[in-house]
Amino acid sequence: MATGSRPGRRDIHHVIIVGAGPAGCLLAGRLASPSVVDPRLRVRGVRNLRVIGASIMPNIVSGSTNAATMALASRGLELFRQEVAA
Q1: Is residue 43 classed as helix, strand or coil in its secondary structure?
Q2: Burial class (CB in 10 A: 0-12, 13-18, 19+), 54
Q3: In the chain, fewer beta carbons within 10 Å around the N or the C end?
């Protein structure tokens, strides 16, 4: 955005994409309702689809979600490998 100009739609879109870290939008849990993914991170009712990311965190961390997301991804990979090996 140029100095002194009014923000346009593209500028706002850019800020939203860069500045947001969506977390906690989906619910993970043991009970089928209302959780979207099961404890093994599989999407309920959809074959061969997992959600492994900040969106399934039950509580949003107070700092950056980066480390928590990396730990979740590591655990998701472990769960996936266990399932493939079985």
Answers
A1: strand
A2: buried
A3: C
CB of 72 closer than 8 Å to CB of 52: yes
pLDDT value of residue 3: 55
Q: Given 7, 13, 14, 70, which residue is catalytic?
A: 14
Tell me which residue has tokens 């991804």.
73
Question: What are the C-alpha distances in Å from 76 to residues 14, 26, 48?
Answer: 30, 16, 13
Query: Using CA atoms in the order 15, 18, 19, 20, what is the torsion angle rounded to 10 degrees?
Result: 110
Q: Is 13 a catalytic residue?
A: no
Question: What's the longest Cα–Cα distance across the chain?
Answer: 61
- Give per-residue pLDDT as tens, 11-64: 544 444 444 566 777 767 666 567 888 889 898 889 988 888 888 887 777 877
pLDDT at 52: 86
